[in-house]
């Protein structure tokens, strides 16, 4: 039976947050954002092992204040990140111990703590069947394509979705995409874009509007409101 590995990049510097520490370690109702994210993967039966990606100098802190403090037994390793998110993911893909070609990798932002077990299960199923998937939600607003301050086009709203994570892949496919991107110097906007660049189909899995990426102080306000309502 193919296994499922979670790869969680948490190597961002969080400059837009304007906080004194990296955003993944900011406290959200008494618990680091990253720990809240990992907790869902720890509790999901569909996840066999978890790998985190962290700035090298923060690995001891991540291990003691997230993995050990909260007893995350599925975490198998903390891998040094790279200069860009794509490089961090690539480091992680190369470091997963014992992974096989048909195993599934779910790649998820460390600062999306409202991912649900249902989303993980749906992404795993889609990745097993289609080879690649992205969790996403339909846009709510009209989107304008702008060139030099002038509206150039208004794409049909029903064709536009907001990409989230997790993004799920058969390991052989995402590893080959990252290998080729590294060789060609291609930098994508997310992991699914590497598959698209290769001409590979990517299935869409319905996400949730609350599955936000905490990037700015306003996002923290939203996150605290979501937690308050949930509790």
Task: Walk me through what this model shows.
The structure is a single chain. With 231 residues, the chain is an alpha/beta fold. It has one domain (4-136, 162-230): Spore Coat Polysaccharide Biosynthesis Protein SpsA, Chain A (Alpha-Beta Complex). It contains 7 helices and 11 strands. It has helices at residues 33-43, 59-68, 85-95, 117-130, 171-184, 191-197, 217-230; strands at residues 4-9, 27-28, 31-32, 49-54, 75-80, 104-107, 132-138, 145-147, 150-153, 161-170, 203-206. The strands form 3 sheets. The protein has a 7-stranded mixed sheet, sandwiched between helices. Strands 2-3 form a two-stranded antiparallel sheet. A two-stranded antiparallel sheet has the order 8-9. Strand 4, helix 2 and strand 5 (75-80) form a beta-alpha-beta unit. Helix 3 packs across helix 5. The protein is globular and about 50 Å long.
Summed up, what is this model?
By secondary structure, this protein is α/β, with parallel strands linked by helices.
What is the element layout, followed by pairings?
Elements: E1 4-9, E2 27-28, E3 31-32, H1 33-43, E4 49-54, H2 59-68, E5 75-80, H3 85-95, E6 104-107, H4 117-130, E7 132-138, E8 145-147, E9 150-153, E10 161-170, H5 171-184, H6 191-197, E11 203-206, H7 217-230
Parallel strand pairs: 1-4, 1-6, 4-5, 7-11
Antiparallel strand pairs: 2-3, 6-10, 7-10, 8-9
Helix pairs in contact: 3-5
Find the structural class using helix and strand composition: alpha/beta
User: H/E element string?
Assistant: EEEHEHEHEHEEEEHHEH
Mean pLDDT: 94
Helix content: 25-40%
Which CATH architecture would you pick? Alpha-Beta Complex
Rg computed from alpha carbons, rounded to a whole number of angstroms: 17 Å
What is the domain tally?
Answer: 1
Counting DSSP E segments of at least 2 residues, the number of strands comes to: 11
Strand order, biggest sheet?
5-4-1-6-10-7-11
Distance from first to last alpha carbon: 37 Å
CATH hierarchy, class: Alpha Beta
Q: How much strand?
A: 15-25%
Main sheet characteristics: 7 strands, mixed
Low-confidence stretches: none
Total number of helical segments? 7
**In the CATH scheme, what's the topology name?**
Spore Coat Polysaccharide Biosynthesis Protein SpsA, Chain A
- So what's the overall shape? globular
Corresponding CATH superfamily: Spore Coat Polysaccharide Biosynthesis Protein SpsA, Chain A
């Amino acid at each position: 039976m193919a296994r499922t590995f979670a790869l969680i990049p948490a190597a961002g510097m969080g400059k837009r947050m304007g906080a004194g520490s990296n955003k993944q370690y900011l406290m959200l109702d008494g618990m680091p954002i990253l720990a809240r994210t990992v907790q869902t993967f720890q509790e999901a039966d569909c996840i066999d092992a978890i790998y985190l990606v962290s700035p090298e100098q923060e690995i001891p802190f991540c291990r003691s204040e997230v993995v050990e403090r909260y007893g995350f037994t599925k975490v198998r390793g903390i891998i040094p990140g790279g200069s860009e998110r794509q490089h961090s993911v690539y480091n992680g893909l190369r470091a997963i111990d014992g992974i096989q070609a048909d195993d599934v990798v779910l790649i998820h932002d460390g600062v999306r703590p409202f991912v649900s077990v249902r989303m993980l299960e749906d992404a795993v199923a889609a990745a097993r069947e289609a080879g690649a998937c992205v969790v996403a939600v339909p846009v709510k607003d009209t989107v304008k394509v702008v060139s030099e301050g002038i509206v150039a086009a208004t794409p049909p709203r029903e064709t536009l979705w907001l990409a989230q994570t997790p993004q799920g892949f058969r390991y052989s496919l995402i590893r080959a995409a990252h290998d080729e991107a590294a060789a060609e110097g291609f930098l994508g906007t997310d992991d699914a874009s590497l598959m698209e660049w290769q001409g590979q189909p990517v299935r869409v899995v319905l996400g949730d509007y609350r599955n936000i990426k905490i990037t700015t102080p306003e996002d923290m306000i939203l996150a605290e409101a979501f937690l308050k309502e949930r509790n």
